[in-house]
Amino acid sequence: MINSLTSTPALVKLALRRDRIMLPAWLYVIVIGVCANAYTFSKLYKTPSSQAALAASARSNPALLFLYGRMNGTSVGALTAWRFGVWGSLFAAIMAIFIVIRHTRADEEAGRLELIGSARVGRQAPLVAALLTSALACVVLTLLLCALLPVIGLPAAGSVALALAIGTTGLAFTGVTAVAAQLTSGARAARGLVFCVLGLAFMTRAAGDAAGAAGPSWLTWALPLGWTEMLRPFAGERWWVLVLPLAMFAAGTWLAFVLAARRDHAAGLLPDRPGRPEASALLRGPQSLAWRLQWTSLAGWAAGFAILFAVCGAAAQGIGSLFGSSKAVEKEFQQLGGQSAIVNAYLAALMLLAGLCAAAFAVSAVLRLRTEETASRADPVLSGSVGRVRWGCSHVLVAVAGSAALLAVAGIATGLGYGLRASAQVSVGGEVARMFGAGMAELPAVLVIAAIAAAAFGLLPDACVAVGWGVLGLAVLVNLFGQSLQLSGWVLDISPFTHVPRLPGGTVAAQSLVWLCVIAVAFGAAGLAGLRRRDIA
Amino acid sequence: MANAIAATGLRKHFGPTKALDGLELTVRSGEVHAFLGPNGAGKTTTIRILLGLLRKDGGDVTLLGGDPWRDATTLHSRLAYVPGDVTLWPGLTGGEIIDLLASLRGDGGAPKRRQELTERFDLDPSKKARAYSKGNRQKVALVAALASDAELLVLDEPTAGLDPLMEATFRELIAAERQAGRTVLLSSHILAEAEALADRVTIIRAGRTVETGTLAEMRHLSRTSVDADLDTPVVLDGLPGVHDAMIDGTRLRCEVDNAALNAVLSRLTSAGVRTLTCRPPTLEELFLRHYSERTGPAQQR
Questions:
Q1: A300 backbone φψ class: left, alpha, beta (φ>0; ψ -120 to 50)
Q2: Domain identity same for B240 and B158
Q3: B40 and B178 part of one domain
Q4: Would you list the DSSP string of A257-309?
Q5: Cβ of residue B104 closer than 8 Å to a chain A Cβ
Q6: Residues B192 and B294 occupy one common structural domain
């Protein structure tokens, strides 16, 4: 019998075959990340008093609450759930986004789905197969965590709760991504749309957690990621919270099918309008082409940065007033430097996050070169009177100027958000200027990451996507998790973000900033030299 | 300058695969030169070396008097290229891409000529490239190349995807370009296209040049394939100009030099013709019948 689901199993098999390297790699990274963290915590913090000390220092530091979430208990399990619950969920969500887009809109845009659809394949089978593949990955991830966490010595119930929290976040974003894949006609735009939702989810929960009881702590409830904390793994699990991500998965899937039934193949819901029959004076030469290709993405990033950092900046007000509950916390609080130092630490953590996000934009902007090359769109540019260095520089410049603009937006928005809500003795203009400087201080580190991606593009084109994102992933790992894992100094030192000053509050060492710039220029030059010498794919 | 393109002993390998193995190609200034070969023969690899996108592994090559790798940027302002598989930026309109390509080459973009060409090719320049069919993408690249003032046009299978009407338009335009003295390198796997347009032809196979010259020089290219079903068996022995005859009862297949066609046909009509098909041989047939022995037994079937 032929129905709308015919051949779904064959398509799932095809998807698994195509993802045979990517999928295990994702599962490995997430599972090892969570388990290694749990194992290290169980070794480092053996006694209840050392666990309580870590918990106390974390509770009194809104920067840590902002980055990792609220702490529900002081056991090793609770500490693990605090440190890697939200981030494990975040990675599971990113995995789901990549899987679903890859097998829906990306295939459709490339025309592969047309070939598949012409065979004896049900109308909804490709979408169902993509959802099943992603769901399967989430289930396997959950099962692996359920099996491994108790082996490390964590309580069984909490392990299952943490595993389910991470797995169901992946499911929730499977649903969201399925909807986004119906809306736009390009895979890149669809991916951007879901990443906006993911960024919003992270920032709402971060603002909610850092705000404390006095602030808008309900924000943590608003979207996934926060739900991971609300499930309270290892600290009196609230199992019913699991209904929220599962409902989101169900709703997203339902909506995706409704939308899919209403649109034509290869079309989005937002129709393509006719454009200019002639190029404007703004579209002349490779540099303006690079801007034209990337400005929509940059504008999206900038809008996201502006909103989220303004909200998080505003949440800085009131921090510190709510930590006076216990003697231990009070003491820790004073050690950290009191009210202004605490606020500064929080704002500096915000800027670190802005730096890492801006680096993600920079890597994607540089790697656009590779996309253009493999899609044969580099040929028409390079067969014009355009040298390779000029073409390479066109997208690298977008990465540099774009990430600088994003850091400026992050700094200014944070300064505005904090300054406008803070008490009268804080001047808004002063805060904006101070945070602008703090944001821009991250730029040299961002440039190093972007330059490594550019070097890989010139010298190792086949591996450049893996190298670019891998280096960024390493920086995230080192700077967000390195200290609590008590990694040795040289491991921390490999990330460029270790060498930028923690502003506001820290001291500026001009020398290290200059060195970062020198390293970035060296990598960039190596990449361009490689590009001049190699074959164009 | 006599030669727009001169390549001798050109070699290129990708890992263990030899893409080009001593290829020779000479294109004289002002001629339309057809560059023929079956799929995978190395046509596109050669063109990408000529454009400086790939680096040659051996041999010598000059393009418009310069080194295509070292002088790529300056040489490119004097040529225009139409790739075999045209991929465009999905978010840009056809008109924007035509103007962009002109500005990348560094010329003004000749708006009048551009207008005339979009009308002749019946192309809507206000559509986004994502909405174009394969043929329309091809037209965008063709308009951009033909509207340019480049002295050399490099066209890689330019009619793939065009309908017969547009193919005819394309042939008219290339004929006009030859009158105007432009040099054209036209890669193709369709012999009829070369016959209609080219002054000279280079045929390659498995990365090597098999034959080069005018079509008149290649007598075996101007043969006709004859398929006939007859009333009585026929004997063609002793007739000049008949090649590769295969007779199976009353069925006949053979190739006939055009000069000998009259004699063969009268022999056939005397045997009584039930059905008769005469057509020019396809390039693939030529390769199977004429070149397989010369270039080794690898592709003999």
A1: alpha
A2: no
A3: yes
A4: HHHHHHS-TT--SSPPPP--SS--TT--HHHHHHHHHHHHHHHHHHHHHHHHH
A5: yes
A6: no
Give me the sign of the Cα torsion angle A327, A328, A332, A333: negative
Which site among B99, B119, B128, B148 would you substitute to test the A interface, given the most A Cβ atoms closer than 10 Å to its Cβ? B99
Give me the helices (H) in chain B, please: 43-50, 72-76, 94-105, 111-120, 134-147, 164-179, 191-197, 261-271, 283-286
pLDDT tens digits, B12-30: 999 899 999 999 999 999 9
Q: Give the residue from A40, A31, A34 showing the smallest Cα distance to A485.
A: A40
List the single best residue of B12, B98, B103 to mutate versus A (max A Cβ within 10 A).
Answer: B103
Total domains in the fold of chain B: 2
Partner A contacted by B230 (CB < 8 A)? no
Q: Give pLDDT, residue B19.
A: 93
Tokens describing residue B282: 């396809």
Q: What pLDDT sits at residue A53?
A: 81
Interface A:B, Cβ pairs < 8 A:
111
A536 touching B, CB under 8 A?
Answer: yes
Q: Could you tell me if B147 and B189 lie in one domain?
A: yes
What mean pLDDT comes out for the span A332-339? 62
- Whether residues B83 and B137 fall in one domain: yes
Residue-averaged pLDDT of chain A: 88
Residue that is written with structure tokens 């009829």 in the block: B192
pLDDT tier for residue A324 given thresholds of 50, 70 and 90: very low
- The number of beta carbons lying within 10 Å of the beta carbon of residue A17 is 8
- Summarize the confidence of residues A75-102 as an average pLDDT: 92
- Contact between residue A8 and residue A129 where contact means Cβ atoms under 8 Å apart: yes
Measured between CA atoms, how close is A390 to chain B, in angstroms?
A: 10
Q: Is the dihedral of CA A228, A229, A230, A234 positive or negative?
A: positive
Chain A residues whose CB is inside 8 A of the B91 CB are 186, 292-293, 296
- Bridge partners (DSSP) of residue B254 are B226
Asked if the Cβ–Cβ distance from B99 to A278 is below 8 Å, we say yes
Contact check, Cβ <8 Å, B128/A275 = yes
pLDDT at A338: 67
| End position of a domain, from candidates B213, B230, B247 | B213
The C-alpha atoms of residue B16 and residue B8 are separated, in whole angstroms, by: 22
Q: How is residue A535 annotated by DSSP?
A: P
Predicted TM-score (pTM) of this structure: 0.82
Residues of B in contact with A272 (CB under 8 A): 128, 130-131
- Nearest one of A536, A528, A524 to A374, comparing CA atoms: A536
Q: Which residues of B touch A289 (CB under 8 A)?
A: 89, 100
Tell me: do B43 and B156 sit in the same domain.
yes
CB contact under 8 A, A276 and B131: no
Look at A275 and B88 and tell me if their CB atoms are within 8 Å.
Answer: no
Residue A504, preceding peptide bond in cis (omega within 30° of 0):
yes
Domain range enclosing B255: 222-299
Mean pLDDT of B250-264: 87
- How is residue B222 annotated by DSSP? G
Q: Which of A139-153, A167-181, A515-529, B239-253 has the lowest mean pLDDT?
A: B239-253
Closest residue by Cα to residue B285 from B84, B17, B105, B38? B38
Q: Which is nearest to A435 in space by CA: A328, A249, A322, A306?
A: A306
Residue B172 burial (10 A CB sphere; 0-12, 13-18, 19+):
exposed
CB of A217 closer than 8 Å to CB of A142 = no
Q: Give the residue ranges of DSSP H helices in A153-186.
A: 156-183
Neighbours of A297 (CB within 10 A): 19
- In 3D space, the residue among B46, B23, B13 whose CA is nearest the CA of residue B209 turns out to be B23
Question: Please, which residues have CB within 8 angstroms of residue B61's CB and are 6 or more apart in sequence?
Answer: B5, B6, B7, B8, B10, B49, B50, B67, B68
